[in-house]
Amino acid sequence: MLTMKKLFLYTLLISSIVFFGACKKSPSVDPVTPPPVVPPTGGGTSVDYLKLAQETHTFTTNNLLTASYGYRANTTTHANNSYEWYNVSQIYADAAMVGVGQTKHLAYMNNTFKFMENMWDKKDLRGGYFASVNLDGTGAGGDKYVDDNALSGMVYLEAYDVTTGTDKQAYLAKAKACGDWLINSGLWDNVYGGGFYWNTLKPEKPAQTNGLTLQLFLKLYSLTGESIYRDWAVQVNNWLNTKMYDPISGLFIWKIDGPGEGIRRTDKFTYDNAIMVEAFILYSKIMNDPSYLTRAQNLGKAMNTTLWNSAWKGYIFNTNETRINPAWCAWGSQAMIRLYEADKNESWLVYARENINRLNIANRNQTTYAYYFFAGFDGQNRSPEIETVDQAWMQRIQALLSKY
């Protein structure tokens, strides 16, 4: 997600299908007249991505950060809710800022990490994060999401990379706890030949959910050397390649649901495939299998064939949606950055930059520096919601781009 919630609680409507999570929100209809769209820079002018990231962070801290150091879901419909994957996405964003030398973000990152304890299930020995709490941290309960917990673990491992001492060890310990909850959650079974369910209600088995668990198991194996994480990584990888890969498009499909053998929902999402690009890059390094770098490159090429809008120069949300979202579409830029870091092919960075440039034109309010939940590629038909997760991902990706 990235992916990826709970509009709401992470409810989404796409083509009359309701779905949730670090990962699937549908656009709302904008009841207000959208503000005028003004490109952030003139033609040919280089973009100061770090400045844009800093401006986004300022908006977030002024409008979304609470006294408890969690973040409200948005400024409109869910201003009194705080969501797990929104909070960890902001930690992810601040970790990226620390990674480019902006050390003041350590305090934001660490304080929100402490707030996250309010969401941890302390009544179940297996633990796991609930999806939502009140702004003061009370009210945790209900369903748990595999993708949210897997993303939380991956975020904490990036925080581990940019911290020291007791903070560093705390991030690793919680990432392991997330991985261990996944293993012991009972949310992997033989239905559809394996795979993790999206959440504790067991409605479906999505690609992004399993892709994020694959990333986490690989990273945990790399850091701890514990074979259980390697074995789970291999198991999840095999299921994804067998059940979720579409050899015709070269992309991963959305999900499997329904009775019996299930129905393969063949919509293609940018962030699903971005997650798998990153997973394959990790697999190539950690499992010492160069063929997976080739697979990541081929998947990136397939993204840029099917999921790229060449007229507007940006990633589509999915193959059935004409508007774009700052979190899920920006995830495509992260995949391109990771490919560049792996093989130094500059063309990946062109896609990464152009995609973010389009989101800055289409979704960014040039006065407040906030990003709208959904907008058309031309910047019209904007949704009114200002979601924390969208601000977080734009802050993060622009911090990453500032290095290049």
From TrEMBL:
One of its GO terms (biological process) is carbohydrate metabolic process. Residues 1-21 form the signal peptide. Keywords: Signal. InterPro entries: 6-hairpin_glycosidase_sf, Glyco_hydro_76, MUG_Protein. The keyword Signal applies. It comes from the Bacteria. This is Beta-galactosidase.
